[in-house]
Amino acid sequence: MNSDLIIVGAGAAGLMAGALAGETGIAAVILERRHRAGLKLLLCGNNRCNISHGGTAADMAKAYGEPVGPFLRDALTLFPPARLRAWFAAAGMPTSLNRDRIYPTTEKADDVLHCFTDRLRDTGVPLVLNCPVNSISADPAGGFVVTCDRVTLRSRMVLIATGGVSYPKTGSVGDGQRIAGELGHSVTPFRAGLAGMDIADAWLTPATGAPEVALPYVRLQLNCDGQDVASVEGNVLCSSTCLRGSAVFDTTRIIARQNLRNCAITMDLFPTQSPAGLAAKITALTPRCDGQLATLVKQLGIDDALAAGLAAALGGNTALRKQDVASDLATRLKAMPIAMTAARPLKEAIVTVGGVSLDDIDPATMESKRVPGLFFAGEVMDVDGPTGGYNLHAAFATAQLAMQTIKKRCPNTVTPAHNRGPADIDEQDDDSAKPNTAPPRTPQIPQAGKAPHAGKAPHASKPAHAGKAPRSGKPAHSGQAPFSDKTPRTGKPAYGNKPASGDRPPRSGQAPYGDRPPRTGKPASGGQAPYGDRPPRSGQAPYGDRPPRTGQAPYGDRPPRTGKARPAWQRRPDAANQPSPDATPQQRRAGRSRLDTASSAAQWSDRTPEQRPDRPDRPDQRRNKRTAGDKGPRQTPPSHSAAPWWAKDKKDPGKRQ
């Protein structure tokens, strides 16, 4: 025997079975015909992967309907939605509930697949890809012989979890149903479940190339031979080729599951409103539609791309001229007929209706009634459910129930001794990754008076670290107590005459820090009292009331220091008479700054003729100074408008030399 269990198929059911086999220690191997596991799992829920539906096991069994619900009752009881969420949370993938549907918190199907593959890696379960199974036969020595293209394996038991036959590119090509038929099982014919539908109604078919139009919430009523069969609510997506959406999918599943023929389908466009309430709304909106029925339909909430076609189907603008237009339109809008021509092909269906007959499988163990030791899980059986996570939950629950029975058949299983996690090294090529075969180091006994270093033996020549407290309850280095209760070293006071921190008394002659008096024999700050109450210095009043210095008046009224006043020309000018910024240093030193006229008059008014300088106040007035004998015109200094230097000429100023 190569193993205790061979799992055929790495879809939702096969991955769950492999993860449980690794957790319980069953020697198992998974065979997958495609190059990657879980390809169809990645497509579930528009790549969001709604793994289950909220509610109890009884609610789910009722939603599956006959005959699937009663068959799955034991599996749902063993593994209800609450336990499914707990299992995924323990595996590292939390989940969330959104409108009664259970999704991974990230709402990414990749995270669900990675959760399974990581679990297989951590528990050491082999996953063989590109390995389609050709046949399964009974081994004369006991067990089964599984024949593949390149290998032949033997095992005690086999679990078939190959899925249905929809989306064949994902690997669902019917291998499991074929093998089960070869082993004597009945196989129910395949039909397309949860598929779109082709229709002949023009108003529900937008123009070719137009984007898909959504009716967010409608009700489809299914009628067959004059009897109501089912009522389904959900959304409808209208395209140029077919109708899709949850309401359409669930309707086609019921038709396929019950093998209905000549069905009539009606659509309630306003399921949340009663006929009387809808008629009242139409009456209120009619005056504002300008006699156009298409405008009225738009105001009722129908998309613009469908409004014109729906108005034409309702009779056009002539419908508004009827005597009882509101009640008539309300009745028709709540029962619009849908002319379904066919369901979409099986390869486009979300789930397959049909498979290994439920009559050949024990619902309490998922074991074959015809071949002992052969188990089934998931969509390979004639098991299907509505949209909203029911089909994935059926795969997980049937795998759980089958593995519970298989574990009882393998009493010698043990939990794996080593679970490889993300921190482990998958490939070990260097010598450092080899197991350590050296004998263990003999622990050293700490020397007297020294505590061992954390996790290490003390150095032979180094004393224990001074002043640090031990970690996690260990004695302090050098025989000291923990940090807060340290006692001094042997023969030495702690910290050089200091007791433990927090309880040490003040220095000799001093009180504790907050109340300590000044040092012994010395007044505080040279004979002064504490800062807030210290008196002023000798002979002075407090700072705010101290008198001016000896012989001087307060600052604002001080007389000059000597009794001799300065001449006005030596006095410091006020702020209004500050020197001009363009004054030269010589002018500043001589006190002849270039001030305005009023300032100059104030500055020069007290000077005697002997004190006044010979030169005038402004340098430019020296050039224009006139004597009493001058009779000619005042000479004007050269300006910037004179001819340039290169154009100056004594004979001809305009001629360049």
Q: Helix- and strand-based class?
A: alpha+beta
Query: Whole-number average pLDDT?
Result: 77
Major β-sheet annotation: 7 strands, mixed
Tally of strands: 19
Describe the global form. flat
Explain how this protein is built.
The model is unreliable at 421-501, 521-527, 593-605, 618-625 and 653-657 (pLDDT under 50). Strands 1, 2, 6, 7, 8, 9 and 19 form a seven-stranded mixed beta sheet that branches. Strands 14-13-12-15-16 form a five-stranded antiparallel beta sheet. Strand 12 (213-224) and strand 13 (227-238) form a beta hairpin. The radius of gyration is 51 Å and the shape is flat. Helix 1 runs parallel beside helix 6 and helix 10 packs across helix 11. It starts with a strand and ends in a 34-residue tail after the last helix. With 657 residues, the protein is of the alpha+beta class. It has helices at 12-24, 57-64, 68-71, 73-78, 81-90, 109-123, 175-182, 246-257, 275-285, 293-299, 304-313, 325-333, 390-409, 585-590, 597-604, 620-623, and strands at residues 3-8, 28-31, 52-53, 95-98, 101-104, 127-128, 133-138, 144-148, 152-160, 187-193, 197-199, 213-224, 227-238, 243-244, 263-268, 336-338, 340-343, 351-356, 374-376. The protein has 16 helices and 19 strands.
